Amino acid sequence: MSELNVAIDKCSRCHGRLCCNYITQWIATPRSKRDFEFLLWQLAHRGVRAYQDDEGWYLLFETRCSHLGDDGLCTIYDERPYICRDYDHDFCEHDEPAEKHFKRYFPDYNALLTYCRKRFKRWDG
Ligand code: SF4
Ligand code: SF4
Questions:
Q1: Is the pTM here over 0.85, yes or no?
Q2: Rounded to 5 degrees, what are φ and ψ at 3?
Q3: Distance from the alpha carbon of residue 67 to the mean position of ligand 2, in angstroms
Q4: pLDDT in tens, 45-57
Q5: CB neighbours (10 Å) of residue 39?
Q6: Which long-range contacts (CB under 8 A, 24 or more apart) does 117-122 make?
Q7: Ligand 1 in contact with 80 (CB < 6 A)?
C-alpha cells in the first residue's frame, strides 16, 4: 500500500478528521490581570479555546478547513500547505489526543475564569 493510501485508510477511520478542523495561534504569555481579561474576551467566543504547553501559550480555533471535501479528503492534496505536508500521519491526534501534552487547557470562558480567580486573589475586587 502506498504512503498516500495508508494515510487515506487511517484518516477514513478518523471521525471528524481531527487535524483539518482547527487552527492554533501562538500568543504572548499572559501575566497581568489585564492580559487575562483580554483572553477571557477571546474565549467568550464560540469555538475559541486556549492552552499552554512546553512551548508557550496558544489560542485554538475550532474551524473546518475550506479544502476538506464532503468525502473527508483534502481537495488540494498535491498542493496542500507546508504545515499539512509536515504533519505526521504515522502518529497523530487519532493515536493520542493533543490535550495530553497540554500543561493547562481552557476549553471555554468559565474554565479560564475559574483559573483567574485562583491566580489573582483580588480578581473580583
Ligand atoms: S488526525 Fe490523523 S488520522 Fe485524523 S485526519 Fe488527521 S492525520 Fe488523519
Ligand atoms: S489543506 Fe487539506 S490537509 Fe490541510 S487542513 Fe485543509 S483539508 Fe486538511
A1: yes
A2: -55, -40
A3: 6
A4: 999 999 999 999 9
A5: 21
A6: 119/36, 120/33, 120/36
A7: no
Ligand number nearest to the C-alpha of 79 = 2
**Substitution candidate for ligand 2 out of 14, 61, 68, 77 with most atoms within 8 A of CB:** 68
- Helix intervals (H) in 1-125: 3-12, 33-43, 82-85, 109-119
Residue nearest to atom 5 of ligand 2 (CA): 20
Nearest to 8 by CA among 69, 60, 79: 69
Contact 33, 123 (CB under 8 A): yes
* Grid coordinates of 103: 500543561
* Residues contacting residue 100 through CB under 8 Å, at least 6 positions apart: none
Tell me which residue has its CA closest to atom 5 in ligand 1: 17
For residues 117 and 4, give the distance between their C-alpha atoms in angstroms, rounded to a whole number.
Answer: 48
Amino acid at 90: D
**Percent of the chain scoring above 90 in pLDDT:** 66
